[in-house]
Design a protein that fits this description.
Length: 1304
Amino acid sequence: MSGFDRSTIQVLPSALTSILLPLTLITSPASAQGPGYDKRYCGTGKQKDYRGTISTTVGGRECQRWDTNSPHSHSRTAANYPNSDLVENYCRNPDNEPSAWCYTSDPAKRWERCDVPYCPYISDEQVRGEIYGNGTASETSADYFEVALHNETLQVIREAEVEYDQNENVPGQTPIEFDNHSDITMTGNTWTAYVLPKAVDIEEDTILEFSFTLTQEPDAGFVAVCLDEDTEEYGDNGVCFVLKSTQGWLKDYVNVPAQTSIGSTSEQRIPIGDMFTGSVNYIAFIQDNDGADRSVGQSTISGIKLSNVEDETLQISIGSHTERSVFSNSYISNNQVSVSNNGVDSQDTKDFWLHVSESGSSIQINGNQVCMIPYPSIDVDECLLTLLHPSSQWKALPLPDGGYDITSATILEFTLQIDESVDFLAVCLDNNTDVESAEVAGKSECVWLQSSDGWSSSTRKNWKHLTTSFETGVSRRVAIPMGQYRGLGEGEVVNAKYIAFIQDIAFSSKWHQGRSAWSDFRLYEQNLDDLELSLFGVPVSIPNVQLSLEGSNGELQDSRDHILSVDGTSVTASGNNWKYFNLGQTITVTAATMLKFKFSLTEKSEYHFICLLKPGVDYVRDGRDDCFLLAGLSNDSMKQFLDVRPAQRIQDGEVFEFNINVGSYFEGEVAAIGYGLDNDLEITNERTSGQSTWSDVEIYDLPSLMIKMDGVDIAVPNKQISYKSHPEDNRPIRDWLVDIDSTGLEATVKGNAWRAFEFPQPLSIHDLGDFVVSFDFSIAEAGEIHGLCFEENLIYANVDNAASDRDSIRCVTTAYFQDLGDVPDIIPTKYQTPAGGSHRYILNLSKIFSRLYSEEGAVVPTYMTLLRVSNNKPGLGECQSDCDNDGECSGDLVCFQRGTTTTYVPGCDGVASGSDDYCYDPDYYTKASFMRYIVFVSDDDRLVNGVRSNGDVTFGNIEITTSLTSCLADEDISFSLDDCTADNFLAAVQAKMEATAACANKSDPLLELFSLFDATEEMDVYSNIEKVCTGAYKLSGYDVYDKGTLGMDAATERQITAEYLDGGSVWNYANSNDNTETIERVASSVATTHLLAWPDHHALEHCDIGAAMCCSAVSRTDPVTNDPNAEVCYVDIKASKRTARVRDGYSIYTQDQANDVYCEAFAWGTDGGSMQSALKGNALFQAGFANMLDGSVEQIPGAPLCGCLDRMPVVTNAKCTQVTSTDSTVNVTFDKSLGVFDSSLALGTISTSDCGDIVDHYRALEGGEDTPESLYVAGRVVGATGCTEATTSFLSSKGLEFSATGTD
């Protein structure tokens, strides 16, 4: 082949009638005989092909070497003429002279023609006859391979082998091998051609097919197969097809697409009729190796076939709109149409056409074509649109049946491999053949798949593109949501009449580029489930229209060919995905708005996030903080997102439930929700790694805090504000929210919090009237101080001093576990709830709060907004900055030195900036006659893992009563109680209220008695109830511990009871039951007929727990009447220092499972008005005095003989004694004329019994549930194995460790 210009191939002339062949058969480097002239001895034509060793001219002169410039300087060098074999000083013709020549060694003769013989011509039939004779290959040679034609099979024999393009082979190379008459294997460098048994005609529709297997790449070379008229590489009729190149693009060959990788086999189907037409006599195989080791490289070509196809109809499968899993086949005529661009019809190279496969199921594009296939779901089974040539191709095929209706669910799916990039590559679905017509402007009917300028072409304004461009040489399947690319919403339809493929070369410098292969097209409607969300408690179904979410600067981040998988309430992203869904409505985010969802991480990618987008916005970082980073490979935050990742980062396979207070980041409208998985780290262009799922998404508002005021609900917005100062409050607030339950009635505070809620309208103090506040309070975990405030402002006042213009204290404690100091800055209530306990409070704040001003006719105050005016300029007005002293403020204004952590200023609205100090009105405190805030205080400055997390308390059922009146004040009341407990007393009052018409709108007996007793706190009510009940017991009481009975020893005139309880007196140390007559008399008569008084003794004072115990170490009777029943764990001497006469100390005992002491306990609980409480003196007499008659004496060292439970040793066991009178009755009356309660007791039988386990007995007294009090009792009588734990805990409180040497 000579003069072959690859840039202009269209249709080549017919085959030559004869071929130039050498006269004699040669021995090729492959050691095979074949026809051909040996160019080492002759040359043809102008002898440019001569490669012999003649080195003298016709004049007998010796030739000058080509690589020297002596004696003649010249430019005919091997570098300038690489194909002319300018070696040694042999005759050659590099520059198209009439024959071979050389420069001479004679300085007087520059150059001269050489006497090289000419080769003669013979006909092609003569050559074939010489090789094949008249027989078949099997008759001629057993070593052959077959070439299948459409109507016969050619057998090409080994003897037909010749060198292709002389001097490319090297000595010693490996011969080509044939196997199974089908496989041709090349090893190392080889350029070998075979004479075909007959001339083969190449027509326009001829296809060359074979399998190609690459075992080893050649070094600095290529692999090719050629069909040629002669054995010259550059001849007039023939083409070489490069199957694999390690030298890049070879511009003088046809470079086939889908270059084969090592160890794989590719199926090649080359439309050679598009390259040339005419007859060929040779098939050639090239495995070129120009490396150092020319034996490297091995490949096999198998099953060679030459066939003809006809372009008639194309079969296409298309999906049904109504039955989305159903596909049907359509047939379209091959009516190819050129595509214009915005009316300009100059883009398409019209000399190249689509070629339909024999089966009609696939097509090939030769040349860079735009091929539009009429729309039925192009399920073109192997639609190989193979774009081989450089000229720009823009073609279309009309879709059958009027085209295809594109909806938001339409998917175009295909496989694409780009083997050489072009200026841009695109696919289109269009309703006409002008891809940028005005009528579809902005509708993106074309999608870019690759672009040389990075998608920035200004001439393709309306085209969308994939984020992840295709990687050259790699096959990739893509599913493009064409409807969503066009921005189609739910219900919108656009008809497409064409499908187009555009492969464009715009610059002449890239004329040799552009190869791509397309296959397996499908066009269908995707089954897309609606996305289900909960918006403010309402289930909402959102159409599954996935739109691309852009980056912060408008850059495309989304891989549009990656589609989110939606399954009802869950959304799964696989690979790079930036998508958003329009909500179909606009919602409003307030400070109380939360975003809750479950996040499942399957495979971590760079970033995983979620966004709430404002109307009209399709990009992140839209001027507000509304995108949230959930997980990712990077430990760094991303500036586009707010980092809400948990401290313990989410790992693959984990599920985490997010509940984000989005209202703390932004407030405003939201119209869309975005889901993102960012993958910019993956090397491959598909960016498919990474997977995560968002499910059960809820957008809701935190419940408002519901407060009743005179029976009317006030919804206090859940916008939480720091009270006192930011350092006091755990921040950021969103991480330490006070939890308002779904009813709005309970507020749970965890960790350190000083948290204010602002009333929707300030409450006028004048209108608050009695200002009685009731609420429930419970402690799950104790902090240091817990309390409730009602405030005019956000300043925590710690001084009540009318002489100064200081704010008044507006906070009360409900529990404190640290010293409040001599002058508390928070007002302690009378009842402090213990850890683990609960209590209902009723507080008359008009009595508790001092300087609670009330002004008639007061109006809601207005507040000026904070404003920076200047730095240190005199004359600053109210709420203006920046001042350094009072002198810089106007009039009587004062400079508020706030510090950098306090963001509020008294009497001003807004947030203070920087370190500015502001002028304010000091009379603001006295003028502020409105309550603006309710505040929950849970203070704890102890750090746990670096945070103040101690404390877990709940406030509930908050109610304000402004006018407290009694409905029973004008009624005479009487009722009888079997047991005069507070609960029974209140139940009787409630029954009376239910029977009284004046109480029709009231149902709270505690609040009724609060009014009737004119109480300040609820404990005043309980105290009064106890007084009424105990008043009945006094008439039946008997003080046996006075001087006349047990109080004094008549013989010694000493206070015997007091000494006895402390472990002294003759009752403890006498050798017999002498001096016990009075005890015996009380035991026999008084103790069973009277309520015995409780002795006045330090060991029995303030038995707040409602339980006591007696323990004796010695028995003076033999045999022992009361056997030892307990072991001692420890004695806290500080608790009983008056008995021990030692200020502090402790005794630790070991245990050996042998009881050493006798203990007997009794309990009456915390209700001082109960019958059990009335009989506690009787129980003490039984446990402490009557037992002495049985020999139980002498206290445990360091402790009293009997005492309140907290003053007694901690022991393993105690007998439980109970004194009861089940048939007694307390009669209660209320005289409306006097306004007082009275009571009397009808005393029944007093009996003593064993009550079993003291802990269980105490729990029953407290209602059957564990309470802090019952748990305390369990911590004093600990059971047989409880000493180690109890002693360890006790010593730990003193900073000591305990190591038990005995056994429990």
